[in-house]
Design a protein that fits this description.
Blueprint: H1 3-8, H2 14-21, H3 35-38, H4 40-70, E1 76-79, E2 83-86, H5 87-113, H6 131-147, H7 154-178, E3 198-200, E4 217-222, H8 235-245, E5 247-251, H9 260-265, E6 270-274, E7 286-288, E8 293-295, E9 302-304, E10 310-313, E11 322-323, E12 325-327, E13 333-335
Antiparallel strand pairs: 1-2, 3-4, 4-5, 5-6, 6-11, 7-8, 8-9, 9-10, 12-13
Length: about 350
């Protein structure tokens, strides 16, 4: 191996050390004082500017709260360069932007003009947790507190604390308001009532028992909420009905039904269960004919249709509610009554 190759080798004991020794540690460049470091008036001016930015953030947060509570949602207006838009959402966006901008600019200006910018280097050492190390850590924190001038400039501490504290309020309002109102009795009361016909979704065709062959599956809605009749409903009413009234109808071998209640609430082996998963409300629409299991495609909760639709796998915590059914005078399948328990996900208002 030539001498030149040895000098450039990245590994190799003495050769590597010799190569490293050719580069000297440049050290830390000399510190250049800022105007605020040498001029008390400039430092005071910077303090007021930072405090003004934090105050601007607080005003933006208060403006967000005012828009959230006092401006009517859906109110539209003409905005320069944008055109017609929802003024309510524009107000929320602008006030939240001012709140964020005030905190960001204030913190940045504080760091650039008042916090210490002296560069330091520290040799690496093994981590330790003895008393001496803890004392040194406390001293470092104390020096950092003083270098940020928090001990000398309480105005900065108060305005920064106020801006950060108030900024949490819009987030809390968005989380609380975005979740919507509590369900109350909306899941306890569905549109299913006694003698209401079971109609195929989406055609709106009534169903006779002989139409439901062994192993077949029907997706069902209550009469008046599917087919031509649904076109006359308000879209929000229709969507609500879809979310809580959907039924899955299956004919089982009566000999395989384990629950006496399930057998009594069915009709000649035909059983009707809510299609809304009791986990988070996804549609339970996958039926395994050989095992008679119902599978939720969202989180794989699995229900046994031969045993009162009890949960046999997955995150759901309670069985699918059963709708009692019978036939009317014309031989069509109808509800014998409404649901005896709430449909859909479990919730804390459920008794």
């Amino acid at each position: 191996m030539s001498d030149t190759t040895q000098e450039l080798a990245p590994h190799g004991g003495e050769n590597s050390a010799a190569t490293t020794d050719r580069f000297e540690n440049p050290g830390i460049p000399p510190h250049v004082p800022r105007r605020a470091d040498v001029d008390p008036k400039a430092a005071k001016r910077a303090e007021r500017q930072v405090a003004a930015l934090f105050t601007l953030s607080m005003l933006g947060t208060l403006g967000f709260i005012a828009v959230y509570f006092f401006m009517e949602e859906g109110q539209r207006g003409w905005v320069f360069w944008i055109g017609e838009m929802d003024v309510y959402h524009l107000g929320l966006g602008l006030t939240l932007a001012v709140s964020l901008l005030g905190i960001g600019l204030g913190a940045g200006h504080w760091a650039k003009t008042l916090m210490s910018d002296v560069e330091v280097s520290e040799e690496r050492h093994p981590q330790a947790s003895d008393d001496q190390a803890r004392l040194e850590t406390a001293q470092h924190l104390s020096r950092g507190y003083r270098s940020a001038q928090l001990n000398r400039r309480p105005l900065l501490l108060m305005t920064a604390g106020g801006a950060l504290s108030l900024f949490a309020l819009p987030l809390a309002l968005q989380v609380a308001g975005g979740l919507g109102p509590l369900p109350g009795n909306k899941l306890s009361i569905t549109n299913w009532k006694k003698d209401m016909r079971l109609m195929i979704d989406p055609s709106g065709t009534p169903i006779r028992p002989e139409h439901v062959t062994q192993g077949s599956v029907f997706h069902v809605m209550p009469e008046g909420f599917v087919g031509e009749a649904a076109h006359e409903l308000d879209p929000s009413v229709m969507m609500t009905a879809k979310a809580k009234d959907s039924i899955i109808l299956v004919r089982l071998d009566p000999a395989k039904i384990k629950s006496s209640k399930q057998r009594e609430w069915g009709y000649q082996g035909i059983v009707a269960y809510s299609k809304i998963c009791t986990h988070v409300g996804c549609p339970v629409a996958l039926y395994e004919q050989q095992t008679h299991h119902l599978l939720c495609p969202c989180h794989q909760s699995t229900f046994d249709m031969t045993d009162d639709c009890k949960v046999i796998f997955g995150p759901a915590k309670r069985p699918l509610p059963q709708l009692p059914i019978t036939v009317d005078g014309e031989g069509y399948l109808v509800a014998a009554d409404g649901f005896a328990e709430p449909v859909g996900p479990s919730f804390w208002e459920r008794g």
